[in-house]
Design brief:
The radius of gyration is 20 Å and the shape is globular. Strands 3, 5, 6, 8, 9 and 10 form a six-stranded mixed beta sheet that branches. The chain has a four-stranded mixed beta sheet with strand order 2-1-4-7, with no helix packed on it. The protein folds into two domains: about 30 residues; about 110 residues, Cupredoxins -  blue copper proteins (Immunoglobulin-like, Sandwich), CATH 2.60.40. It is built from two helices and ten strands. Strand 1 and strand 2 form a beta hairpin. It is α+β, with helices and mostly antiparallel strands.
Length: about 140
């Protein structure tokens, strides 16, 4: 192999390695110690107010997550929902529609800001925004 071809091959392999390893920060999430969690939330009518609540405990409206955790929102059987996230670093999307009875599963991004991250959920048929901690928020631990 000539020196030029050898240099070209070395550079090509280097770029390939950079691309492969940079994919983790661009959206992929690694869990080297198995500490990632799954958080399940539901949109329910509680005391005549649509709320985003813990799917197992309707009195809990606060969700604390770590980067890489999975969050699942369940739509009611009789209502469509429209999600609006303020920053696509949080979940990788700005808006998402969830049809009645379906769920939305998103992973908290590696580049999401720590602290409180508000988002909005519009309940179509009721023509109202769901409350949580009004607005609902995802709190990302450091």
């Amino acid at each position: 192999m000539t020196p030029h071809k050898n240099l070209f091959a070395t550079i090509a392999v280097g770029f390939l390695l950079i691309i492969v390893y940079s994919c983790d920060d661009a959206g992929g999430v690694t869990d080297p110690v198995g500490e990632l969690e799954r958080h399940e939330l539901a949109c329910l009518l509680v005391d005549d107010v649509w709320k985003i609540v813990d799917a197992q405990d309707t009195t809990e409206t606060k969700v604390e997550v770590a980067r890489g955790d999975t969050v699942v929102w369940y739509a009611p059987e009789n209502r469509d929902m429209y999600f609006q996230f303020m920053d696509d670093d949080l979940t990788g999307v700005f808006t998402k529609e969830v049809l009645m009875g379906d769920s939305l599963t998103l992973v908290i991004g590696n580049n999401a800001d720590a602290g409180e991250n508000p988002y909005a959920v519009f309940v179509y048929e009721a023509r109202v925004y769901a409350a949580g901690d009004s607005p609902p928020r995802i709190i990302i631990r450091e």
